[in-house]
């Protein structure tokens, strides 16, 4: 398959997801919060010569705009995601990377955030002839299934008309992320039923094939001591088989699944999930930790050079500017982020030897 540097969207994104299922790889979807993590993500994709998904959570988008801003009506979170996406559009060519720009969980109360991004995206489309984002996610898993799917259909219509994708959530990803706490949710809601996936699949397909499904199979946001919840990737396999039989389909994996809350999972479970149709896996907790660890090690190493502007262990009169310049330690965070993210590309088999994707203008 051939891809070009810049935004991947519409029919090409559909082809990429189908191709990923055929070849057995998934694309890392890394959460970013500002230019440091955005650039580190693009740097990784360039080094790996592979497509990447870069995504903003609602909190990450707000942070990118600046926590000092008032966020009434989600206006700061809208512009934080918009400016982040424009940053990526403008630099993807220089990095030489095909990139999918996405936004993460939007529960019912965050629909104004999505609406604001769509409104801006329409203006962008008029001017540039392509969408600003490749896709948005709605997470209405807290609502009854029928309502979840009904609202999702409405958004899928609007997005697919703009050549964009919609990601929906069925069942609940456990744990805690971005201020949403699902740590005490009833265990059985952490496992989606094949019937629920089939219902959503059938209804959404009436509108457009431009959708992906984040189905819960015991996945949990964040990293906790093992043992509490068990990952059951076979739920994805069972869902694919159920749908194939119910609708008499020939395709082996009709559904394109998304894997949330995969941090700390066994590689074996990750690979199984990919084999059962996961095309996108979210990466957040592990790269958050890696960024901080990179900064931590810098501070550990140069602690004595960071206590005052002048004077360090090599001399009382020596200036410390070259140690405390924030670029120094931020870069160490970026480097550590890149190193960890590379491992995710390998775990997900998003590497040229496997995906056989050539990137050219
Ligand atoms: Zn998630």
Report on this model:
- The longest helix has 22 residues, at 326-347.
- The model has no long low-confidence stretch (mean pLDDT 95).
- It is built from 13 helices and 16 strands.
- Strand 3 (27-31), helix 2 (35-48) and strand 4 form a beta-alpha-beta unit.
- It has one domain (2-291, 340-359): Aldolase class I (TIM Barrel, Alpha-Beta Barrel).
- 48% of the residues lie in helices and 17% in strands.
- It is globular and about 80 Å long.
- The strands form four sheets. Strands 2, 3, 4, 5, 6, 7, 10, 12 and 13 form a nine-stranded parallel β-sheet that branches.
- With 361 residues, it is an alpha/beta fold.
- The chain binds zinc ion (ZN).
- Residues 105, 173, 177, 221, 260-261, 282 line the site of zinc ion.
- Zinc ion binds next to loops.
Uncertain stretches: none
Distance between the termini: 13 Å
CATH uppermost class: Alpha Beta
* Proportion in helices: 40-55%
Secondary-structure content class? alpha/beta
Give the topology string: H per helix, E per strand.
EEHEHEHHEHEHEEEHEEHEHEHEEHHHE
The H-level CATH homologous superfamily, spelled out, is Aldolase class I
Tell me the CATH topology: TIM Barrel
Summed up, the helix count is: 13
Bound compounds, each kind once, are: zinc ion
Shape label: globular
The strand count comes to 16
- Round the mean pLDDT to the nearest integer and report it: 95
Query: What is the rounded Rg?
Result: 21 Å
Strand content: 15-25%
Q: Which architecture per CATH?
A: Alpha-Beta Barrel
């Amino acid at each position: 398959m051939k891809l070009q540097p810049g935004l991947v969207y519409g029919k090409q994104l559909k082809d990429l997801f189908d191709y990923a299922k055929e070849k057995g790889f998934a694309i890392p979807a890394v959460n970013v919060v500002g230019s440091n993590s955005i650039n580190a993500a693009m740097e990784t994709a360039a080094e790996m010569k592979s497509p990447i998904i870069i995504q903003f959570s609602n909190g990450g988008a707000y942070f990118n705009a600046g926590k000092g801003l008032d966020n009434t009506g989600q206006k700061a979170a809208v512009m934080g995601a918009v400016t982040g996406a424009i940053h990526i559009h403008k630099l993807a060519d220089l990095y030489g990377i095909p990139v999918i720009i996405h936004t993460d969980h939007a529960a019912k109360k965050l629909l104004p955030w999505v609406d604001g991004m769509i409104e801006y995206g329409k203006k962008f489309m008029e001017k540039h002839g392509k969408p600003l984002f490749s896709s948005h996610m709605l997470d209405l898993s807290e609502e009854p299934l029928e309502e979840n799917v009904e609202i999702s259909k409405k958004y899928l219509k609007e997005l697919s008309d703009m050549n964009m994708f919609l990601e929906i959530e069925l069942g609940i990803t456990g744990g805690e992320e971005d201020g949403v706490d699902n740590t005490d949710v009833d265990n059985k809601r952490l496992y989606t039923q094949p019937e629920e996936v089939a219902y959503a699949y059938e209804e959404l397909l009436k509108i457009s094939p431009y959708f992906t499904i984040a189905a819960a199979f015991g996945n949990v946001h964040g990293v906790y001591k093992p043992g509490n919840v068990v990952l059951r990737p076979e739920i994805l396999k069972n869902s694919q088989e159920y749908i194939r039989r119910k609708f008499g389909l020939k395709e082996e994996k009709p559904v394109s699944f998304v894997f949330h809350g995969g941090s700390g999972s066994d590689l074996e479970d990750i690979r199984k999930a990919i084999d059962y149709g996961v095309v996108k896996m979210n990466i957040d907790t592990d790269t958050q930790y890696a960024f901080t660890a990179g900064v931590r090690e810098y501070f550990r190493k140069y602690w004595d050079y960071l206590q005052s502007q002048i004077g360090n262990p090599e001399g009382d009169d020596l200036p410390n500017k070259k140690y405390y310049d924030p670029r120094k330690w931020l870069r160490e965070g970026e480097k550590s982020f890149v190193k960890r993210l590379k491992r995710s590309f390998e775990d997900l088999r998003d590497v040229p030897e496997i995906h056989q994707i050539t990137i050219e203008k």
